[in-house]
């Protein structure tokens, strides 16, 4: 599920008390108090959903007496007995852990904290990392780059910065501070008169407890000095008491803690016995036989199942009704949410209305800016600002999950309306995409037909089509409600249907650790945008137009007459009817085919006219797509353009972008460089580019386990020269550029399953010579052919291939009877694990950077992701520091069998930085 082991440890004993005091009294159907059990169950259900690891365990205290009591009998001696209502809940919480099929671990003579510390140390030694679900200050001494805490109530990570904020020192000095200040709760004596601030100051000044006590006699005379001298031994004892043991014998080996699916029957039966209705629904376990929420006062209504009818839905036009739906959403613990707008451009869209669903068949629509009709006026709509103010606390409530289909769009719309905080979220589009990239589309309508056997109301059916289409704001409220509320209803049902599959398809880590965190990251990048140089773009457009006109004259001369270069029909007549060139094929419509592959083949055979047409088309595309379009798409106020990243389009997991499409700017041509020069930094800033070097070749060397290639990357050799030396038997010293170029073409061509014909065309050699090169390559690196054969077989057997990080890339045409389509699918299958692995790595890097960049204090912004490159904007003064930081973090984003290398550049524009 994940590249490295990730152990999640729940401080079960600590959470019991926190939940008991945080929640109101509750009882199960038998009258037993269960408020702490209910809190624990909710926490565990959310943990399994939101914070996936490869390994998981809940750690409990086995009893009160530990080695610390033998050392210091007063340790925790004054603690009162647990509250009477809490005592019966201890056993129930262990039952809950068993019902979720999660290991429960305790060991007599040791505290839960010692077990947690020992397991955290063990997973570190195994090369993994650890998340401790607790906010206990005593566990903060364990925090390091491989270990973090997670506050189970606030759902906030606790890392070095948070420890520093609490104690005034780094995690490795927490023990010294605690030894000085003591702890009255646990009867840890410490040094009288020294509190948290004083302890932190002493540690900052002298380094550690031993140095402080050694320096005490020489300190300025004061009460503090005397106290340090008089209570030095108490401080040393306190240090022993607060220091967590990392060498406790592990009751269960790490391998026994692997994440396991709960038995749904067992879990459902236990939840039913407790009356935990909302947890059953939240986990998609179906309707409850005895629907009773554990509460002293509230009786819940039976929950609709996914078999509930679609509608009728409610139109919300009063605050009382809105408040009632908000309450329902809170009680459910999750709800689906959707926005209706007047634009597909999320940054420019204005809210027309919004809908939410709290259970299958239970959904409502809130119209905000409908214009109404004579037959159905819309004058009774609620004020948009009042509605948004009412919704803000709910959307920011971390205990209530918000479910979207294409969440990034809705988050951008809500941000534009003033709601910046929406958390936590799930996205059914990405939940599906993480499991089935390439298998089918990820749009809501298609997913609904596929998983729910339901055909949703179409947008065209409510707004019309073509010239008869009306804006959604003019759709009558009854019809708008049917359409909009159904969208939320469908989204909720899709969540119930799709989310359990994440574990079954081993896609949970991919979704939780990569795809879901990227939603907010990409939304922020889209809002930020990047500045463009409008005058330069206009000059470029004029130059392209002039060159195209000159080309057109030359092409007409070669053709012997004038014709419309943009007309495939006229071009086909020129090439195949009038010039009689070979290789022409007619389309089904009867016209000659003149796509780029046809023209390229003619050009490769020495025909000048098709070659010039290709050049003209390339220039025309650059002019229309970039030189002209970027000026039109530029925000007039900021001078920036804001691309839209598509998260669920490609088969391999790569991002794509549109409006503008930044993925297709030519990399190695002069025109591509000119376009990149038009992307600029603000005054006083620069752009920093960070690009993974030869990442797909590195992945190939790793997954195919090619020793010479791995060695070349380890030694930082020129990989193409090394390949040429290995394949053609030529010494590295004095390697000629032509031989190296041929090796480079094979290296990169192999990744894409290049044929002898394709290599021959690329190198301008005969197919026979190209075949000899490829045969020599496979003879030297047989592991690559084995990888290709193995990958093709995997695709044929399963219909998909898998990246090194667990992403499934489906190849639907792999079993095609048509040999050409099947061969193309096989090339896709060979490349997908490599291209998809590269996409996974840069996405991991983006998530890593989004967490760590704010901690650096650098005023930098991530602007763009294009294939294997990230682009940032930062002040000139901080550029070098940012480049070094980004390079380090990107190179550490994943660990494969060869080093990852990131090349950075700094410039006033993208071309300079790239």
UniProtKB/TrEMBL annotation:
EC primary class: transferase
EC number in record = 2.7.7.7
Q: Specify the protein name.
A: DNA polymerase I
What this chain does, per the entry, is described as: In addition to polymerase activity, this DNA polymerase exhibits 3'-5' and 5'-3' exonuclease activity.
Q: Which UniProt keywords apply?
A: DNA damage, DNA repair, DNA replication, DNA-binding, DNA-directed DNA polymerase, Exonuclease, Hydrolase, Nuclease, Nucleotidyltransferase, Transferase
Q: Where are the transmembrane segments?
A: none
Checking CDD domains in the record gives: DNA_pol_A_pol_I_C, DNA_polA_I_Ecoli_like_exo, H3TH_53EXO, PIN_53EXO
Pfam families assigned: 5_3_exonuc (PF01367), 5_3_exonuc_N (PF02739), DNA_pol_A (PF00476), DNA_pol_A_exo1 (PF01612)
Which GO biological-process labels does this protein carry? DNA-templated DNA replication; double-strand break repair
SUBUNIT field: Single-chain monomer with multiple functions.
Catalytic activity, reaction form: DNA(n) + a 2'-deoxyribonucleoside 5'-triphosphate = DNA(n+1) + diphosphate
- Protein species of origin: Kozakia baliensis
From the UniProt record, which GO molecular function terms apply? Answer: 3'-5' exonuclease activity; 5'-3' exonuclease activity; DNA binding; DNA-directed DNA polymerase activity
Its gene? polA
Q: Which residues form a coiled coil?
A: none
The family note in this entry says:
Belongs to the DNA polymerase type-A family.
**Classification via PROSITE patterns:** DNA_POLYMERASE_A
């Amino acid at each position: 599920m994940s590249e490295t082991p990730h152990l999640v440890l729940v401080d079960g004993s600590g959470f019991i008390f926190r939940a008991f005091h945080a929640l109101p009294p509750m009882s199960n159907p038998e009258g037993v108090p269960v408020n702490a059990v209910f809190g624990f169950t909710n926490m565990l259900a959310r943990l399994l959903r939101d914070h996936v690891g490869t390994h998981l365990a809940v750690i409990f205290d086995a009893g009160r007496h530990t080695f610390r009591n033998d050392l210091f009998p007063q340790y925790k001696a004054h603690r009162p007995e647990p509250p009477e209502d809490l005592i019966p809940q201890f056993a129930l919480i262990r039952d809950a852990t068993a019902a979720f099929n999660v290991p429960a671990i305790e060991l007599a003579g040791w505290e839960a904290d010692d077990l947690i510390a020992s397991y955290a140390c063990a997973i570190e030694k195994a090369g993994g990392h650890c998340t401790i679900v607790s906010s206990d200050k005593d566990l903060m001494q364990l925090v390091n780059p491989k270990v973090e805490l997670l506050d189970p109530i606030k759902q906030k990570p606790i890392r070095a910065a948070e420890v520093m904020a609490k104690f005034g020192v780094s995690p490795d000095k927490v023990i010294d501070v605690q030894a000085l200040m003591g702890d009255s709760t646990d009867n840890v004596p410490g040094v009288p008169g020294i509190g948290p601030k004083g302890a932190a100051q002493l540690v900052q000044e002298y380094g550690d407890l031993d140095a402080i006590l050694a320096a005490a006699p020489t300190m300025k005379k004061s009460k503090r000095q005397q106290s340090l001298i008089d209570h030095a031994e108490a401080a040393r004892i306190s240090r022993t008491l607060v220091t967590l043991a990392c060498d406790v014998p592990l009751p269960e080996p790490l391998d026994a803690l692997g994440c396991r699916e709960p038995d749904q029957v067992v879990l459902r039966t236990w939840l039913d016995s407790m009356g935990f209705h909302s947890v059953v629904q939240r986990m998609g376990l179906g309707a409850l036989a005895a629907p009773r929420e554990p509460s002293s006062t509230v009786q819940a209504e039976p929950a609709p199942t996914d078999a509930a009818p679609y509608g009728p839905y409610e139109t919300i036009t009063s605050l009382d009704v809105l408040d009632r739906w908000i309450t329902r959403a809170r009680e459910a613990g999750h709800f689906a949410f959707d926005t209706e707008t007047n634009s597909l451009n999320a940054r420019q869209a204005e809210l027309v209305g919004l809908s939410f669903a709290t259970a299958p068949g239970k959904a409502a629509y809130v119209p905000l800016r409908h214009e109404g009709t004579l037959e159905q006026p819309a004058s009774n709509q609620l004020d948009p600002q009042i509605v948004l103010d009412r919704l803000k606390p709910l959307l920011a409530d971390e205990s209530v999950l918000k479910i979207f289909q294409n969440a990034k769009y809705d988050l951008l719309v809500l941000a534009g309306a003033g709601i910046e905080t929406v958390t936590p979220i799930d996205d059914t589009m990405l939940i599906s995409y993480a499991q089935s990239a390439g298998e089918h589309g990820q749009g809501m309508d298609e997913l609904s037909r596929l998983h729910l056997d339901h055909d949703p109301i179409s947008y065209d059916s409510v707004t019309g089509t073509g010239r008869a289409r009306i804006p959604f704001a003019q759709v009558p409220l009854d019809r708008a409600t049917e359409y909009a509320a159904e969208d939320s209803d469908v989204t909720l049902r899709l969540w119930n249907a799709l989310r359990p599959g994440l574990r079954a398809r081993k896609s949970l880590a991919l979704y939780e650790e990569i795809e879901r965190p990227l939603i907010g990251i990409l939304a922020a990048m889209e809002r930020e945008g990047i500045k463009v140089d409008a005058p330069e773009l206009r000059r470029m457009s004029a130059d392209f137009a002039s060159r195209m006109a000159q080309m057109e004259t030359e092409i007409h001369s070669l053709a012997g007459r004038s014709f419309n270069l943009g007309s495939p029909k006229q071009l086909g007549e020129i090439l195949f009817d009038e010039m009689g060139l070979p290789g022409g094929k007619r389309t089904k419509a009867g016209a000659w085919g003149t796509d780029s592959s046809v023209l390229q083949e003619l050009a490769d055979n020495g025909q000048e006219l098709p070659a010039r047409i290709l050049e003209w088309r390339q220039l025309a595309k650059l002019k229309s797509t970039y030189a002209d379009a970027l000026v039109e798409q530029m925000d007039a106020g900021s001078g920036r353009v804001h691309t839209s990243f598509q998260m669920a389009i490609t088969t391999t997991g790569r991002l794509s972008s549109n409006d503008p499409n930044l993925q297709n700017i030519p990399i190695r041509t002069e025109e591509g460089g000119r376009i990149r020069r038009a992307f600029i930094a603000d005054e006083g800033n620069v752009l920093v580019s960070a690009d993974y070097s030869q990442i797909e070749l590195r992945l190939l060397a790793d997954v195919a386990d090619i020793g010479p290639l791995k060695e070349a990357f380890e030694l930082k050799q020129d990989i193409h020269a090394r390949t040429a030396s290995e394949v053609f038997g030529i010494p590295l010293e004095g390697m000629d550029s032509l031989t190296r170029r041929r090796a480079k073409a094979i290296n990169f061509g192999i990744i894409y399953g290049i044929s002898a014909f394709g290599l021959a065309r690329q190198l301008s050699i005969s197919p026979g010579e190209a075949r000899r090169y490829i045969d020599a390559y496979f003879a030297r690196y047989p592991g690559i052919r084995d990888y290709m054969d193995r990958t093709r077989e995997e695709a044929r057997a399963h219909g998909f291939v898998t990246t090194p990080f667990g992403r499934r890339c489906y190849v639907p045409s792999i079993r095609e009877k048509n040999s050409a389509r099947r061969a193309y699918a096989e090339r896709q299958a060979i490349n997908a694990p490599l291209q998809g692995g590269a996409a996974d790595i840069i996405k991991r890097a983006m998530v890593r950077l989004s967490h760590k960049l704010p901690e650096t204090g650098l005023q930098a912004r991530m602007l763009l992701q294009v294939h294997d490159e990230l682009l940032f904007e930062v002040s000139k003064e901080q550029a070098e520091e940012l480049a070094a930081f980004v390079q380090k973090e990107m190179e550490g984003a994943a660990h494969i069998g060869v080093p990852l290398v990131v090349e950075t550049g700094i410039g006033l524009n993208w071309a300079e930085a790239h």
